[in-house]
Design brief:
The chain starts with 5 loop residues before the first helix and ends with a strand. By secondary structure, it is mainly beta.
Length: 303
Amino acid sequence: MTKPSHKRIGFLVGLLIVCAAAYRWVAAPVAFDTAFDIRLENLPADLVVTGPVPTEGEARIRGPRAAVRSFRNSAGICRLDLRPAKPGLFTLPIDAAAFNLPRAISLVTVDPASITLRLEPKITRTVAVQAVLIGTPAQGYEVQQAAAHPTAVAVSGPKQIIDGLAHLPTAPVSLENKSDSFKKEIALDLPEGVMMAGDPPPSPVVVTVVTITQRMGQRHFEGIPVEARHTVYEARITPPVIAIDVKGAEKDLAGLSADSGITAFVDLKDLPPGIYVRRAKINLPIGTSLVQAAPEVFTISLK
């Protein structure tokens, strides 16, 4: 049997020394700083967290170099169990148990060392929806009605906030230069901490229907002559003029005058000479209507 040479023995010894040194380097305990995310778990269904909640922190861990490096390269997550939580201020320590550290790694320091949460009772209530309108319709037009569909939605959140909700506003709906009715899908402007109720929660979007009509107005006209029609006789009408109030769209009334577009007359067809009392008939442009007239009757003398 051939004996190992001195060179081969020396190589093997050197290799063992290198491996031992490498093992000592890898296994030597080291400390590293690492960031971590904070996750809240198992929140009771009848509670809600209000106020600021820290979402991340920093920790120093110690352990074998290889184990620490592997842990640092993975996503550090701090899981905090809220099952024991009660309404009010609730403080949770952040310790090694929250990180599920490998056995070889220990937690040296952590910042923050604890977090304090404000917890409030969570309630669900149905709240009316209110459409929020901004801007001005086109000249001569106005909003007759604006309604959201559905008219009310179920929301859940902190009792203090939900109890104070008189209504839920939508995001603003612009009316700028609108002259026609329209509908628009628009999100609800939910307060912080309030969400739609349901499993799963529905989308916080409603349909706002806006009905736009022409702005109506009223005008008064005086001194409109009352004519005699359908007679061959000489007619004397007392009084000779009438005053009227007319309503209609503002843009239609704007171009209306007593001597253009308005006529008043008494119909004397088939009447022989004599004295009569008659009501006047009034012709108005399309889109307008008579509110009242004075006087209501006239005396007509036919000769």
